[in-house]
Amino acid sequence: MPSGKKVILDFIANIPDNKITDMPNGNGSNPLHSTDDLRLDMQGMTSSNPQKHNLQVQINAETKHKSLKTQSSSRLNTSVAAVLALPGTPPSDIRNGLKDSYNQSKIIDL
């Protein structure tokens, strides 16, 4: 079984372009892409001017991956990566931001 880190980075690398272009500008959680272990959620728009998409990679509660399950049960929040992205941000920039967020354990403002 691959490590949790590999599963997360592979998930980010394989987010289809069409899932992170032309995203809705509404508020509320909106799952954009998911697997059995992880999902990419848009948690609405920021209140800043200009507004940005709040995108988060989260561990699914029903994951069977042992290290992801352990990681999610030891956290109050299941987010492992997050970016704030302007509408129209290229998909490659969003994926790179999510990788940086995961590796640096912080929200990346694109």
Automatic annotation (TrEMBL):
Residues 24-33, 44-53 have a biased composition (Polar residues). It comes from the Eukaryota. Residues 18-53 are annotated as: Disordered. This is Uncharacterized protein. It comes from Lunasporangiospora selenospora.
